[in-house]
Amino acid sequence: MRGAWLDDDGLPAWRNRAEATEPGADGESASDATASDDERAAPGRSAGAPGRGGWLPTDPEPTRTGTLADTTRAPAWAVLLCVIGFGAVGAMILTAVLNSDGELLTGSEVGIVLLLVSITAFRFIAKHDENPALVPLLTAALSVKIIGTFARYQVGTSVYDRSDATNYDTYGRRWATDYLSHGALPGVKSWSGTNFIRLLTAELYNILPASEFAAFIVFSWLSFVGLILFWRAFRRVYPNGERKYFYLVMFAPSMVYWPSSLGKEAIVILGLGAATYGFARCLTKAVISGTAFVAAGIVLVTYVRAHVALVLLIGMFFAVMLRKRPKGQLIGTVATLLVFVVVGLYVGRQANSYFKTDVSNTSDVSSQFSDAVSRTHQGGSEFNPVPIHSPADFPYAAITVLFRPFPWESGSIQELLTSFESLVYAGVLITGAKRLAGRVRRDQPIALYAFGTTVVFIIVFSNFANFGILARQRTQVLPFLFMLLCVPERPKKDRYTPIMQQVLEKMDSSEPAA
C-alpha cells in the first residue's frame, strides 16, 4: 500500500516520455504504435501521462511540462544547501557544547532526529516517484528551513524582550510540571486558540526536556510537513506542472522564516496543507482518504484559528459549487453539500466560541472586524487599513494584504526583506494577470479553490492594522496564491481548420494503398 503523502498515479512523466519515444520493431515510436485514434487527436497530451479521474477535466494538458521528474540529477545548488544545512546543525551542537547551553543542545538533538526521519521519508517519496533527485532537493529545502528556524529563534529571543513564543514556552513549562506530569489537565474554559498551542507545548515538554529552541524545531518541522502536503496536493492534480510550485512553496523566504517558530502559524500551515491534500485526493478518485485528510486539517485549523478554517471551508465550497460537473454525479454533489453543511456547522460553532459572538450575524462580524483594527493598531508597525465595505474597496485591500508593506513603509529589517519579496510576487502577478484570468476556470476546481480561499482571506484580513502581524498571517494564504500562479494554462486551440488543410487531409485519406 502507498503512503498517505503519496499519489497513486502511474509512472512519472519523464519515464512515460522515455517509453513513449522508444522505437518499435517497425521503426515507429511506441506511442504511435499503441495510441488510439482519440489519443492521436489530442496532441497536447502526452501519451503516457497519468490519467485524471473523478471531478477533473479531460481536456488536453499543455505540451510544456514542469515536473520535477525532468530533474533526474540533483542540481549543484541543492547539494550545496544540503552541505550548509548539515554544517549549520554541526555548528549548533558545537556551540551548545562549548557554551554548556542545554537549550540549544536539546534543540539540536531533536533537530538531528527529525532530520533522519525526514530523509527516510524523502527516500520513500523518491522511490515512489522513481526520481532519486528528490532526496537532495527535499533535503535542501529542509536545510533552508533549519537555518530559517535558527534565525527566527535568535530574533525572537535576542531582539524582542517578549513574544508569543516566550508566552507559550512559559505556560508549557508550568503546565508540564504542575499538571501533565501528574496526569491532569489545567482548568481552562476553552482549548482553542492560544490555550491549544500552550497545551501542545506542555505536551512536548512532558516528553522532552523543556527547551524553547527544541519547541521551535518541532513546530517548524510540522510546518514543513504542511508545505510537503501542499506540494503533493498540487502534484496530484498537475503531475506535469509541479516544479515551479515546489520551488515557490518550499523556498519562498516568508514560508522559510515566519512559520518556523513556536506559534500558531506552524500548526495552521500543517492543517491547511492536510486539508488541501485531502481536497486534491477527493478530486482524483480517492474520496474516502481525501475526506479524512480534509476533516483532520479543518479540525486542526479550527482549534488554532477558527476564522481561517471558515476561510478554507468557503474556498472549498466555492470550488465544488462552481466546478464543471460531469454527467451522473448528482448523488456525489448532494453528498458533498451535506458534508459541507455538517462541517460548516461545527466550524461555525467553534468560531462563535472563539470570537464570543455570532459569526452568522452581520453586525456582530462588523463589530469583530472593528475590534481587530483596534487590537492590531499598535506595536510600532501600525498603519491605517481600509476594511472592505464594498467591491470598490477590494483592490486596495488586496494590495495591502498580499503585498504591503512597501520598502518605504518598513519599520524593521524583517519587514524590509518581506517588502522586497512581496514586490517580486506583485510583479509576477501583474505581468501574468491575463494568464491568471485564463487559469481560473470551471474545469479547474483546484484553481477555483485557491482563488476562493485567497479572496475570502483578503476580505477577512483587510482589517489588520499592523505590518508585522500581517507579514506573519500572510503565510497562510501564500500557498494558495502560488497555486494561482502555477496552474497550467489552457492550450490554445484553433477556432477552425483552414480550408487548404482540410483539402490536403482529404487527398491524403483518398490515396490508394501502395
Portion of residues within helices: 55-70%
Number of strands: 0
Q: Taking all residues together, what is the mean pLDDT?
A: 78
What general form does the structure show? globular
Strand content: under 5%
State the major sheet: none
From the N-terminal CA to the C-terminal CA, the straight-line distance is 52 Å
Which regions have little confidence, pLDDT < 50, spanning 5+ residues?
1-65, 361-370
Oligomer: single chain
How many individual helices?
23
Query: Radius of gyration in whole Å, from Cα?
Result: 25 Å
The string of secondary-structure elements, in order, is HHHHHHHHHHHHHHHHHHHHHHH
Judged by helices, strands and strand pairing, the structural class is mainly alpha
